[in-house]
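Feature request disguised as a bug report, sorry. It would help if multi-protein outputs had a clear separator. Right now it looks like this:
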Amino acid sequence: MKDPADRIDFANLPAPGDSIVVTFFITVRKVARSRDFYSRVLGGTLVMDENPCMVKLANSWIIMNPGGPPTPDKPGISVVNYQPGDTTSIFLNLRVADVRARYEEWRAKGAEFVTPPIDRGAEIRCYMRDPDGYLIEVGQSTGLLHGELAAKLAEDLPG
C-alpha cells in the first residue's frame, strides 16, 4: 500500500481552516477514466488518485468515487451511477474567459460536445458530457458584463 504522503497533494486538499469550501461529488463507473478527463482534458490538478479521487479544477474540486451501498452515516441510502439520457437535474457549470478557445482545446483532447458554442446575448455557451455522461456547461459571460440578460428563445420555453 502506498504511503498517504505519496498519494495526496496536501497543499491542494479542500480543507478550510474556519470557513466553507464547496466541492462537487460525482459517482463514476471508472475512476481512472474520469480522473484522466478532469485532469488531462480539462487541465485540473490531481490531488488524490482514488478512494476518493480528487481533482482541483481552478478554484473548485471534483471528487469522484464509484457508487456503493448504505453506510452508517447514510443508512438506507445507496450511491448509484448516473444514468445518462435526455434529462438532467444537476450539472457542472464552468465559466471561462474564451469559450471558443476552450471548446477547440478540449475537443482536440477528446471532449464530446453537444453543440459548438452558441451566442445567447448575455453569454456564449455550449455543453459537453464527461465519460459517465454528466452534463457540463461551458460558458463565457459577454453581454451580461454590460447588463444584458439572456434572450428568451422560443425553444427554451415550455410547450
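(second protein starts here, but nothing in the output says so)
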Amino acid sequence: MARQRVVLVGAGIMGSHHARVISQSSESDLVALVDPFEEGGRRVAGRYGATWLPELPDLDDVDAVVVAAPTEHHRPIALEVLGSGTPLLIEKPVAADLGVTREIVTEADSRDVPLMCGFLERYNPAVLTAASIIEQPLHMSSVRHSPYAPRIRTGVGWDLLVHDVDLSLRFLGTEPTTVTSSLGHFHPTSGPDSEDVAEAVLGYADGGVAHVSASRVGQRKIRQISVYELDRLVEIDLLRRDVTVYHHVSENSADGEGRGYKQQTVIEIPEMVTSQEPLTAQFERFMSLARGEGDAAAERAGLLPAHVVVDRVLHGSAE
C-alpha cells in the first residue's frame, strides 16, 4: 500500500500533536507543515522531518490535509482544500458559525470529498468502552472545566462544550428537541462574544435528559461524564481514560438511629476495549476515508448535529 502524502496546517499546540502522530504513522508521510509564522513553523517541521511553508502548496500531489489552525482561519483554508478535491481533517469546531460550517460541509458533499472534524473524544478508550456496555441511557451529566487559556479566542461553547454535546448525541441516540442554556462572561480579557461558562440542558423526544457544563474559569482540568440507567451508573473519566460502573444495593443510617448514612454499592471496573491514543485512532480513521474506505458521506453527516446544538446553546435559535 502506497504511503499517503499529508500536509498539516498549523504549528501550535494541537498542530504539534498532529505532526507527531502523522510522522509516526506507518501509512503516511508528513511532507509539509504550513504556518505563516516562520520560527514556530520551521521548528515543528524540522522536528518531524517536514518542509515548512508559509501557505498552502499546490495540492495535486497531496493525498490529505489536516488543519489545526485557529478557528477563525478555517473557512478559507477548508474551502481551498475541498475545492481541490483533497480529503480534509479539520480541528473542531469546523467553524465558530453554523452557517459557515454548513457551507464547508455542503462543499464537501457536492464534491464527495472525505471531511472529518476533530471530535477527539469519540476515540477516547473510556468513551469506546462505555459505549460498548451502555444499554438504556436515561440521563447524562458532563463536566468539562479548565483553567483560563488566553490563546483560545472562541468561547467555551465551541472550544469545550461541543465535545460533550457530540457525546450526548451518541449516548442518548437522537438530536435534542429542547435546548435551554445559560452563559457566563467573567474574565476581563475575554471578548464580548466569548463566553467563559456555558451550562445547557438538552431534552430528548424519548424523555432523555443531558446536562452539559463547560467552564474556563476553573482551577483544575476536569473531564468527567456520568451516564445513568435505571439500575446502574456509568462514570467516565476522560483524562484518566477509565470507566467505573455502580449498582446501588441498599441504604440505611450509619448507626441504626438515623445518624449518618450508609450505602451498599456494587462497583465494576471494566477492561478498556482499546488503549490506543485517541489522536492516533482518529488519524487512522481519516487515512482510511482518504483511501476510499468506509462511509465518507455518513462521516460528513455526523459533523453537523453537534454544531447545530451548540449554536442553539449560544443563540437560543430553534432548528
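Even a blank line would do. Unrelated, but nice: The chain has a mean pLDDT of 95.
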